[in-house]
């Protein structure tokens, strides 16, 4: 039997790594961080326990990579779903809704992810995070930013803060209000993206943005 080619080995490693990341998301979402062991993840992924340590230095780093992969795939699906659009405002609205949607549909997973970022390990720069960053930077560019290096981190920070507000134990903010605040800031129509049912919060005016570029660093002003 002839040895496998380097390209075949690389593909097998890629698939193995993705199985580990998917198993991490599934198990921690279902059972929580503390109740999920690396052995559980290895068994779910159908791989050796030692292989996880080969790819990831620790459980927190593995979780961040797994959640960033989920966020990247969710964002990519939202941006490319039919009907496809190249409109920058529509794409930004889809991006915001995709990330906020994960906080609503996977609260345990996203709460654990945010807690890990705020602990000593901090924000892990990994392949999955870089893919997510590329999509968000591209979204900011299409929206009309002339300073992506400033506007992308600002958008990322606003999204992270909004996710925390949605998931804050004992005092969560309502999705509609938080979404409205973000959409107002960026001059986005409430009906863009995937608006939640029930419409905007009571008393909040529905913004109809004019055409043209917007400054991501400036809040929209009511007229």
Describe the secondary structure blueprint for this structure.
Layout: H1 6-31, H2 38-45, H3 49-55, H4 59-80, H5 88-105, H6 107-118, H7 127-143, H8 148-167, H9 175-185
Helix pairs in contact: 1-2, 1-4, 1-6, 4-5, 4-6, 4-7, 5-6, 5-7, 5-8, 5-9, 6-8, 7-8, 8-9
> Total helix count?
9
Helix content: 55-70%
Largest sheet: none
Based on DSSP secondary structure assignment, what is the total number of beta strands?
0
From the N-terminal CA to the C-terminal CA, the straight-line distance is 74 Å
Task: Tell me the β content.
Answer: under 5%
Order of helices and strands: HHHHHHHHH
| Rg over alpha carbons | 19 Å
The residue ranges in which pLDDT falls below 50 over 5 or more consecutive positions are 209-213, 217-223
How would you describe this protein?
The chain has nine helices and no strands. It has helices at residues 6-31, 38-45, 49-55, 59-80, 88-105, 107-118, 127-143, 148-167, 175-185. Residues 209-213 and 217-223 have low confidence and may be disordered.
Task: Give the key terms.
63% helix, globular, mainly alpha, 0% strand
In summary, what is this structure?
With 223 residues, this protein is mainly α. Helix content is 63%, strand content 0%.
């Amino acid at each position: 039997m002839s040895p496998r080619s380097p390209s075949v080995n690389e593909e097998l490693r890629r698939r193995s790594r993705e199985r580990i990341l998917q198993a991490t998301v599934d198990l921690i979402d279902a059972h929580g961080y503390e109740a999920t062991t690396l052995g559980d993840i290895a068994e779910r992924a159908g791989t050796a326990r030692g292989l996880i340590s080969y790819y990831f230095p620790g459980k927190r780093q593995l979780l961040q990579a797994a959640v960033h992969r989920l966020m990247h795939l969710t964002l990519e699906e939202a941006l490319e779903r039919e009907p496809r659009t190249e409109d920058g405002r529509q794409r930004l609205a889809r991006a915001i809704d995709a990330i906020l949607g994960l906080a609503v549909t996977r609260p345990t997973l996203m709460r654990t992810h945010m807690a890990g970022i705020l602990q000593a390990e901090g924000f892990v720069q990994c392949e999955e995070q870089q893919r997510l960053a590329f999509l968000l930077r591209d979204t900011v560019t299409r929206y009309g930013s002339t300073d992506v290096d400033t506007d992308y981190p600002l958008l990322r920070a606003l999204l992270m803060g909004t996710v925390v507000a949605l998931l804050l134990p004992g005092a969560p903010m309502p999705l509609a209000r938080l979404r409205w605040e973000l959409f107002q800031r960026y001059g986005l129509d409430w009906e863009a993206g995937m608006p939640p049912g029930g419409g905007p919060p009571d008393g909040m005016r529905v913004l109809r943005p004019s055409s043209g570029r917007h400054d991501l660093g400036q809040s929209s002003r009511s007229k």
